[in-house]
Design brief:
The complex is a heterodimer of chains A (about 120) and B (about 110).
Chain A (H helix, E strand, L loop, with lengths): L3 E4 L2 E4 L5 E7 L5 E7 L5 E7 L6 E2 L6 E5 L5 E5 L8 E8 L10 E2 L3 E5 L1
Parallel strand pairs in A: 2-11
Antiparallel strand pairs in A: 1-3, 3-8, 4-5, 4-9, 5-6, 7-8, 9-10, 9-11
Chain B lengths: L3 E3 L2 E5 L4 E6 L6 E7 L6 E7 L4 E3 L4 E5 L4 E6 L8 E9 L4 E4 L3 E6 L1
Parallel strand pairs in B: 2-11
Antiparallel strand pairs in B: 1-3, 3-8, 4-5, 4-9, 5-6, 7-8, 9-10, 9-11
Classes of the chains: A mainly beta (about 120), B mainly beta (about 110).
Chain lengths: ~120, ~110
């Protein structure tokens, strides 16, 4: 099992460019999450998908969109990148939702710089 | 709304003990603990549930006080490999939204 994979690992964008971060998991998990982590800071939830077919906003959704393509894949799109979106982006997945019983498994992260 | 962790940072010598606290202003139904090493993704350590159920790594211990809305992570006989940033986290009841605490940076020196 590869677990949670993310592509690309690194990306540099110019202000105003768009891009999609890809995330896939092979653990048959129901829930998937996108976080951003600014240098020296904690993890902030951007969007999440509790189950296939549903998506909801997290703490910091402005400037982002998501697609839960199928049970395996959850992508994050930046329509018009801004320097404030320079961050490390982590995707995570977990087996279930609602009871707090399940742990999250994280991908390796995408390091994004917007100039 | 973000759980607050204390201390913000701690430095230990190998073999020393440490306690990391996580406190929430809202009701907690479960608390999760993760460790993140520099440049890496967070890794799961432990889940604590209401009613006392726990699951996680055998060498890690933690407590969960539901009434006080607090959890503590106990690191005993620390090793160099314990260095990293520790985060508590919880699923907000009724929303499926997940929120992490402010983080505690731990450094273990030889």
């Amino acid at each position: 099992n590869a677990g949670v994979t993310q592509t690309p690992k690194f990306q540099v964008l110019k202000t105003g460019q768009s891009m999609t971060l890809q995330c896939a998991q092979d653990m048959n998990h129901n829930s998937m999450y996108w976080y951003r982590q600014d240098p020296g800071m904690g993890l902030r939830l951007i969007y999440y998908s509790a189950s296939e077919g549903t998506t909801d906003k997290g703490e910091v959704p402005n400037g982002y969109n998501v697609s839960r393509l199928n049970k395996r894949e959850f992508s994050l799109r930046l329509e018009s990148a801004a320097p404030s979106q320079t961050s490390v982006y982590f995707c995570a997945s977990k087996k279930g939702y609602g009871s707090g019983y399940y742990e999250q498994y994280f991908g390796p992260g995408t390091r994004l710089t917007v100039t | 709304q973000q759980p607050v962790q204390s201390p913000q940072a701690v430095i230990l010598r190998e073999g020393e003990d440490a306690v990391i606290n996580c406190s929430s202003s809202k009701a907690l139904y479960s608390v999760h603990w993760y460790r993140q090493k520099h440049g890496e993704a967070p890794v799961f350590l432990m889940i604590l549930l209401k009613g006392g159920e726990q699951k996680g790594h055998e060498k890690i211990s933690a407590s969960f006080n539901e009434k006080k809305q607090q959890s503590s992570l106990y690191l005993t006989a620390s090793q160099l490999s314990y260095s990293g940033t520790y985060f508590c986290g919880t699923e907000i009841p009724g929303t499926y939204k997940y929120i992490f605490g402010t983080g505690t940076r731990l450094k273990v020196l030889a």
